[in-house]
Every structure is written in C-alpha cells, then in structure tokens.
Amino acid sequence: MTHRTVEAVTRAIADRSRDRRAAYEAAIVPPAPGPAPRSCLSCANVAHAVAAAPEDEKGTIAAGRAPNIGIVTAYNDMLSAHEPMGEYPAMIKAAARRVGATAQVAGGVPAMCDGVTQGRAGMDLSLFSRDVIAMATAVGLSHDVFDAAICLGTCDKIVPGLLIGALQFPALPVAFSPAGPMPRGASNAEKAKTRQLHAEGKVGREALLASEMTSYHAPGTCTFYGTANSNQVLIEVMGLHMPGTAFAPPRTPLRTALLRAATERLAAAAAGGDWSPIGRIVDAKSIVNALVALLATGGSTNHTIHWIAVARAAGLVVTWDDFAALSRVVPLVARVYPNGPADVNAFEAAGGIGFLVRTCLEAGLMHEDVSTIAGPGLWRYAVTPRLAADDLVLDPAPAESRDEAVLRAASAPFEAESGLRMLSGNLGRAVIKTSAVKPEHRKVTAPARVFESQEAFLAAYRAGAITADRVVVVRFQGPRANGMPELHGLMPALGSLLDRGLKVALVTDGRMSGASGKVPAAIHLTPEGAAGGPIARLADGDVITVDGEGGTLSVAADLAGRAAASCPPSPGDVGRGLFAPLRAMVGPADEGASVVGALAG
C-alpha cells in the first residue's frame, strides 16, 4: 500500500496540473499502423535525411520500413563522464542493425564541466546551459525522421536539459544512457581535508593539485554523490534507463550489454511492441518516485530546481511544498559523500538503486504502477544486473543491504526524515541539505556578515576578518543576477571556521549542488536579491537564524524601511554577455529557474 503522504502529494500535483497536463497528453498520439510518418515527407526532405547513411540503409530509412532511432549525444573528451560516449553511436547503430532497425546521430549538445568552471567566470553560464541543452535536443529531434531516441549524458545540467528537450516529443519512446562512474581514487574525505588545509594556508598548490588529480583520475563520473550521480538515480527510478544502468562502470562488457539492451528495447517499442512513449512514462507518479529517491539518498540540492523544470516540461506543476511534505515521511537510507565517507561505487556494491527501489516499494514510499522503458511496473527496477556469458541477466535486488554503513532499509534508516529540507521565514524560502551536517550544527543563530560575491567573502576569510560566530550572507548570486553559479569555493573556508569552534552558517540566493558539505547552508533563497528579495536589505550585524531541524530562516530585524542594495552588473566576458536576455526573463528558483519554463507560463 502506498504511503498516504506519497499519495496525497501525487494527487495534489495531478490536481493543480490538470489543465496543463491534459494539453500535454493531447500530443501523445500512438503511431499509425504501417510505414513510419517520414514516408509522408517530401522526397527532398527524405533525400537530405539519408544522404550520408550507409547505402544498404538508405532505402529502409526513406521508406519507413523499420524503426529509426535518433541519438542525441553530449559527448566531448574534456569531460571525464562523457568521454566514453564517443564510442556509443557506433555501438548503438550496430545493436540497431542486429534487430533490423537503424540509428542516426540526431545532434550534439554542449556539456560543460562544473568541476572545471568552479570559481571561474564560466560558472555563470552553467545553469543556463540546461535550457540551451533542452533547446539543442529539440532541434536535433525536430527533423521528424525518428521513431525513438536515446539521450547520452551524465552530468549536472546535461541530463535535465536532455530530458526537458526530449519531453517536447511526448509520443517518442526515449531511453537515457550515461557512462558510469570512474574507479575510486583518493577518498572524498581526504580530498575535502586537503582543500580545507589549502584554504588555511597549511599546504601549497602542489599538494592540492596532487590530491585533486588522484581524486579525478579516469574516464567516468566523479564518484561523490553530487548532481551527476543524483541524475542517474532519478532517471533510473523514473524508468528511463534500462534497469541497472546507472552505475555500471565505463568500458565494461556489462556497460556495453546495457546499452545494447536499451537500443533493442527502443526498436521494439517504436515497432509497436509495448509502446512506452516518454510522455506516458513521465507522469505525476514517476516524478514523485524521483523526488522520493532524491530525498531518501540525500541527493543533490540542484534537483529541487531541475526536477521542477522537468515536471513543467511534462505539463506538471511541482512545488517546494511537495518536497517539504515528502521530506517529513521519507527516511534517509544512504550515506554517500558528502553525506558520509563512501562513494557511489560503494553504494552500488551495497545494493545500489535496485535495493533502494526494493526497500522504498516495500515501505510504500514509491508508486509501483508506473510505465517504464523496460515495461510496466517499477518492480522491474528492483534488480541487480550481471552478465551470463554475453547475456544480460537481471537478478532480484538483495533483500538486505550488503553494507549498512552505506545503504539501509527504509525500516531501519540512518535518519527518520530525509537529507533535504525546505526553510521558510521572513527572508523567503530556501533549501538546506541536512544529511551532510551533524545534528549539533543544524541550527545557528548569529550576526550576519554580508558579501556581494564569494570572492569578497574569501578575501575577508584570508585576511582573518571573521573571528566570531557568523551567518555568512552571499547575495546577488541568483538566476537573474548572474546566472546562479555554484559556490563550492566557499565550503573549505566555512568548514575551517566551523573546525575552529565557531558557529557558522551560509545564506545565499546562489547554489551549492550536491557537494554542500558540513556547514548548514540555506541556498536557492527565493525571492533572490536581484528580484527585490529581503536578502538585498540585509546588513552586517543583523541576527539571522538558520534552523535546519525546525525548517525556518529568519532575521530579527524590520527590513521594510530599508533601501535594497544594488545588484552589481554582470560582466560580458567569456560569453556572459550572450546570456543577458536569459537573465532578464528567467523564472525564480522555486519554479525551476528556467527560461523555457518562464516563456511557457
């Protein structure tokens, strides 16, 4: 039986979305019997589409005699999590040919690495890259010659962007495939410690670089539980992966078999067998399943933005109140860095997503009666993949965790409530990741120290100017101000202040991602400073309370009569000038911080 709160949240989403969802579903039209629709295109249209195809496939594609799968790829060889995808199109085409189908690369999308742009000007483009990716995905699939699609992507804004774009084609069967995580290098705890020592001036650049390069050292996804790996959990739980896909390592026979299975499944669905279009898979129930998975694992705070935007692309209105309601009943069942010392490889070894789905279904925390690319029912995902000879075998997920220090049953969790909480009060609404913060640090009341940028805070820290308890406020970091960059550079310094015995917290209208760390951080504050939010009226010395347990964010001052500080202009270098129109029209964080969403209303 599904938990009453899970049912209530799902019903609330469906009720408030009724008209939007009905309009969306009207476009989910089953394919007509007979040749594919491209057989009705003009001869010139078709000739262009097949001009570069292999000679033995031109006639097949042109006549619509077999499914044609469009490949949308975020490949580049600078981004470790996407470098293995350079080989995928050839593998997909070969798998398609084996089942009498064809495949073509429909288009490529940008894939920036937030790890490279952290603290740099390029980070101001990061959030908006999601909407650029969504539009690029739509451009690639707009040629009307595809009967299904496979989206290749792994990291941060890339997967939500691919999903938002693919949802513009609700009648297409669509599967996703990542590259999988890199092997464990230096532990995440060791990396974090070296970063903090460097911030304190106790180790030099050479030691810091050595630490980073032994942490990020091979093809595959970074192994901490940030946005990239949270993406994979949510996509799989929504039924858009083949079961077991998320954390199979790169360039292994298992990874190849899973990609082949996804291709074969798409070909079968496009041919009319168990037709499962993306518009049917992504509904209120699957969105709630994704939110439950995020909360149960203490995943990336970025998804309190991204999955609101994803839901809206499917005609569904999700709010932070939905996250808050679920957060109170979904237990924390995983400890993966920064929520604990383990990495995602250890999470997979402990039972991974298969065990997560199993325990959440047994506890009534997920909807089982959903459509997936693998067929009806979420129990299909309570499995562990393996190879028997060359055949993909899906064994039932273990009944018990293989490592309870990393992954536990919902009946015996690490904490009774989830790792993400919503905060509200007279400063607005914000998100906090409590799973990475010790209980004794989750409530802080202290005078504010206000900064207009992370660089200004770091300069004050290096000058030794922060010697007492403080709530550090970094404002004008929201989507309208500068594109809402991630502010990871704050954490080593803030962690150092905490280790000195100070009570310290962060309040910002910017982002921190899945690597929020051990300091309580009220992030995504809405309304943001650039939109006239109360944060723009704060001053040094205002006493602020950040209460991650009680869910409040407040200031003990009357801000009504104060003038708001001015938002600094965003520079135009490294492409930031091109994004000025997006900053002007973007919606707020609690509505997905989306440009395409704001335009859609």
Structural notes for this entry:
It is a single chain. The protein folds into 3 domains: 4-30 and 66-183 and 218-396, no CATH class; 184-217, no CATH class; 421-568, Glucose Oxidase, domain 1 (3-Layer(bba) Sandwich), CATH 3.50.30. The strands form 3 sheets. Strands 7-8-12-11-10-9-13-14 form an 8-stranded mixed β-sheet. The chain has a 4-stranded parallel β-sheet with strand order 2-1-3-4, with helices on both faces. The protein has 601 residues and is an alpha/beta fold. The mean pLDDT is 93. It has 23 helices and 14 strands. It is globular, with a radius of gyration of 24 Å. The longest helix has 18 residues, at 253-270. 37% of the residues lie in helices and 13% in strands.
Task: Show the helix and strand layout.
Layout: H1 4-16, H2 18-25, H3 43-50, H4 55-63, E1 68-73, H5 88-98, E2 102-108, H6 114-117, H7 126-141, E3 148-152, H8 158-166, E4 174-177, H9 188-199, H10 205-215, H11 227-237, H12 253-270, H13 278-281, H14 284-297, H15 303-313, H16 320-327, H17 344-350, H18 352-362, E5 383-388, E6 391-396, E7 420-425, E8 428-433, E9 443-451, H19 454-462, E10 470-474, H20 479-482, H21 490-499, E11 504-508, E12 521-526, E13 543-547, E14 552-555, H22 580-585, H23 595-600
Parallel strand pairs: 1-2, 1-3, 3-4, 9-10, 10-11, 11-12
Antiparallel strand pairs: 5-6, 7-8, 8-12, 9-13, 13-14
Radius of gyration: 24 Å
The rough form would be described as globular
| Gap from first CA to last CA | 36 Å
**What count of helical segments does DSSP give?**
23
**Largest β-sheet summary:** 8 strands, mixed
Report the structural category. alpha/beta
Contiguous runs where pLDDT drops below 50 for at least 5 residues: none
Percent of residues in helices: 25-40%
